[in-house]
From TrEMBL:
Residues binding (2S)-2-hydroxy-3-oxobutyl phosphate, per UniProt: G90, T91, R132
Native source species: [Propionibacterium] namnetense SK182B-JCVI
Residues that coordinate or bind 5-amino-6-(D-ribitylamino)uracil: W31, S63, F64, E65, V85, V86, I87, F118
Pathway assigned in UniProt: Cofactor biosynthesis; riboflavin biosynthesis; riboflavin from 2-hydroxy-3-oxobutyl phosphate and 5-amino-6-(D-ribitylamino)uracil: step 1/2
One GO MF term attached to the UniProt entry: 6,7-dimethyl-8-ribityllumazine synthase activity
Reaction equation(s) it catalyzes: (2S)-2-hydroxy-3-oxobutyl phosphate + 5-amino-6-(D-ribitylamino)uracil = 6,7-dimethyl-8-(1-D-ribityl)lumazine + phosphate + 2 H2O + H(+)
Function: Catalyzes the formation of 6,7-dimethyl-8-ribityllumazine by condensation of 5-amino-6-(D-ribitylamino)uracil with 3,4-dihydroxy-2-butanone 4-phosphate. This is the penultimate step in the biosynthesis of riboflavin.
Gene3D superfamilies: Lumazine/riboflavin synthase
Domain of life: Bacteria
Pfam families per UniProt: DMRL_synthase
Gene name of this polypeptide: ribH
Lineage: Bacteria, Bacillati, Actinomycetota, Actinomycetes, Propionibacteriales
Keywords: Ligase, Riboflavin biosynthesis, Transferase
Any one of the GO BP annotations: riboflavin biosynthetic process
EC assignment: 2.5.1.78
Name assigned to this protein: 6,7-dimethyl-8-ribityllumazine synthase
Length: 166
């Protein structure tokens, strides 16, 4: 179970997911080590809580590299989890990286029909990122939530397809 504090009733209840037998890849950037440690730990805990065993973890340099890694892996996994963090600075770099990573991950998910849990933090400062990283004292656990979202999406789509509904 996640150790995060829920900030409100808007967070969906995804407890009881069954991801046993699913092959799941986790793509995680390396920038901001403390935040990424929390996000990755949370994602792995979320997968484990859903019954996923032996997820594959792939580390890439930064958030800009998440889409190409997801594109390379999508056809080999039932679901993916993309984890990264971009902290606003004094240049437009923040906007370019956030936009490229978001559009790229979205494109991969839609094009390959592979559910991708979106765990890219886009924060104004380090404190915001740490508060969302699932670390001791964090109010949110976005890695956990992204992993659960990937399993929930795979399950929802698979259930509809298996029933023959269109």
């Amino acid at each position: 179970m996640s150790s995060r504090t829920t900030l409100g009733s808007a967070v969906p209840d995804l407890s009881g997911l069954n991801g046993s037998g699913l092959r799941v890849g986790v793509v995680a950037s390396q920038w901001h080590d403390a935040v990424m440690t929390g996000l990755l730990d949370g994602a792995l805990r979320g997968l484990r809580d859903s019954g996923v065993s032996d997820p594959v973890v792939v580390r890439v340099p930064g958030s800009f590299e998440l889409p190409v890694a997801c594109a390379s892996l999508a056809d080999h996994f039932d679901a993916l989890v993309a984890l990264g963090v971009v902290i606003r600075g004094g240049t437009p770099h923040f906007d370019y990286v956030c936009d490229a990573a978001t559009r790229g991950i979205t494109d991969v998910a839609v094009r390959t029909k592979t559910p991708i849990g979106f765990g890219l933090l886009t924060c104004d400062d380090d404190a915001q990122a740490l508060d969302r990283a699932g670390l001791e004292g964090s109010h949110e656990d976005k890695g956990y939530e992204a992993a659960q979202a990937a399993i929930a999406t795979f399950t929802a789509v698979s259930t509809v397809l298996a029933s023959g509904s269109s």
